[in-house]
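Practice problem: predict the structure.
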Amino acid sequence: MVARVRTVAFHGVEVIEVDTQVTIASGLPAFTVVGLPDKAVAESRERVRAALAALGLALPPKRITVNLAPADVAKEGTHFDLPIALGLLAAMDVLPADELGAYTVLGELALDGSLTNVAGVLLAALAAASRGSGLICPAACGGEAAWAGEVEIIAAPTLLAIVNHFKGTQLPAPPHAVARRPGRARSKSLLRRLSWLSSTTSKEPNSCLRRRRVLPSRGRAGSIFAT
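Answer:
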């Protein structure tokens, strides 16, 4: 059985759909990620293993292979942690694979199973909305994803909250679009810098117009050329 979870890869502002394929087969115990992963994606194996252990789940002693298709596109970033973890849970029959297929998933996992915010959530939400699918992301990114408009968003704080959502025991509150505003401390610091700049300019009005002293040209022997 091959469990599939949809996610995305970013190349500048271009969003490429990625199919996370997870299979658990007989053989020597191994956990392999293929499909041109970078160092951060390759290290997701240890984050996923620790996050599942925090839920009380252990990986089966079998050969686990994760393929990030298309395999000829480079995969960069830590947002592949969550789709790999959910794909493993679907392959282990913990989560329903058919329901996961209706969502685009991205998020970074901490060792205790909590979800950390990642970049590119708004672009992923817009791509999910254009395909008519939902989005699963960290709770810290829910406000950003809500700007995409009419798209179902599951913004969860932990991996356990996502598992409970699909089990029907916990329903995360829908996020609302939030616009960031500069804090009061940042505004005061900016005002102090502007007042200092204005006082410096008033004391030295010609400080930036200082003349440079021009020295006469000298020949090879050190004498000044004159006509």
